[in-house]
Amino acid sequence: MSTQKTAIVTGAARGIGAAVAKRLADDGLAVAVLDLDADACADTVKAITDAGGKAIAVGADVSDEASVAAAVTKVADELGPPTVVVNNAGITRDNLLFKMTVADWDAVMNVHLRGAFNVTKAAQKYMVDAGWGRVVNLSSTSALGNRGQVNYSAAKAGMQGFTKTLAIELGKFGVTANAIAPGFIETEMTAATAERVGVPFEDFKAAAASQIPVNRVGAPEDIAHTASFFISEGAGFVSGQVVYVAGGPKD
Ligand code: NAP
């Protein structure tokens, strides 16, 4: 019987999720590259298989319970029981409180919080059956408060509470849960923010880097490296933690 473990990485068509998916494949896991549109996952899957790894594309909306249930069953059937979950799918709908619509509030809550809940709930039974599992949730430095992101910062702070409670509930089944809170990472998400505020991305990045102690913005691979640690065999005594990966201290 194969001892290869299976991971689900959500929002893995691009950005941080794609880097995490590639890294976990390099670490020897079979990876379900999950995103809204399965076709959009093709590049990530190809990069993994070209490098000799194993991956499939899975289309699902993490905010939709039935869509997630079908996706997780598909992963179990095609790759094996998913015992590693990285809840990375995310969106922003930034605005100042007085201009924010209920739809923008709900959209952000639904993808980040309901999405992580749906995927983790569907996958936990495979982890409990295996007596082993790893959950990694994407929080953000925005959890500490960020102008124009009352919805996103609330969701990302919520991801931290979700993580800590998972750690408490699932620890006795050999499952750890931890959160990564990235600072500024160069992806389409931050490029879209630059566009929204009308600043060229290069200038936006340079301004961000000037405020970061290590004097650069982050790359998706910085987050992938941290995820790789959390899902590793040796990290079994690390649970319920939030690691800020932001090029400097945050609290
Ligand atoms: P990104 O480039 O925008 O990628 C996010 C991915 O999630 C996209 O492929 C997107 O698909 C997918 N997605 C959105 N809604 C989904 C849903 N309902 N179901 C399934 N997939 C969905 O973002 P990123 O910068 O890589 O960010 C990844 C995670 O890190 C997010 O949770 C984000 O909040 C967090 N984070 C990012 C930064 C940063 O500086 N970039 C900092 C802190 C935290 P579509 O393309 O179809 O929309």
* CATH class membership: Alpha Beta
* Small molecules (ligands, ions, cofactors) in the structure: NADP nicotinamide-adenine-dinucleotide phosphate
Shape, principal axes of CA atoms = globular
- In helices, the fraction of residues equals 40-55%
Describe the oligomeric state of these chains in a short phrase. single chain
**What is the β-strand count?**
7
CATH superfamily: NAD(P)-binding Rossmann-like Domain
The main pleated sheet reads as: 7 strands, parallel
Strand order within the widest beta sheet? 3-2-1-4-5-6-7
Order of helices and strands: EHEHEHEHEHEHHHE
Number of helices: 8
Total number of domains: 1
Radius of gyration: 17 Å
Summarize the structure.
The chain is of the alpha/beta class. The protein contains eight helices and seven strands; from the N terminus they run E-H-E-H-E-H-E-H-E-H-E-H-H-H-E. The chain has one domain (6-183, 218-245): 3-Layer(aba) Sandwich (Rossmann fold).
Structural commentary:
- The protein is α/β, with parallel strands linked by helices.
- The chain has a single domain, classed as NAD(P)-binding Rossmann-like Domain (Rossmann fold, 3-Layer(aba) Sandwich).
- The chain is about 45% helix and about 15% strand.
- The protein is built from 8 helices and 7 strands; from the N terminus they run E-H-E-H-E-H-E-H-E-H-E-H-H-H-E.
- It has helices spanning about 15-25, 40-50, 65-80, 100-130, 150-170, 190-195, 200-210, 220-230, and strands at about 5-10, 30-35, 55-60, 80-85, 135-140, 175-180, 240-245.
- The protein has a 7-stranded parallel beta sheet, with helices on both faces.
- The longest helix is centred in the middle third of the chain and has 29 residues, at about 100-130.
- The protein is globular, with a radius of gyration of 17 Å.
- It binds NADP nicotinamide-adenine-dinucleotide phosphate.
- NADP nicotinamide-adenine-dinucleotide phosphate binds near residues 14, 63, 90, 91 and 190.
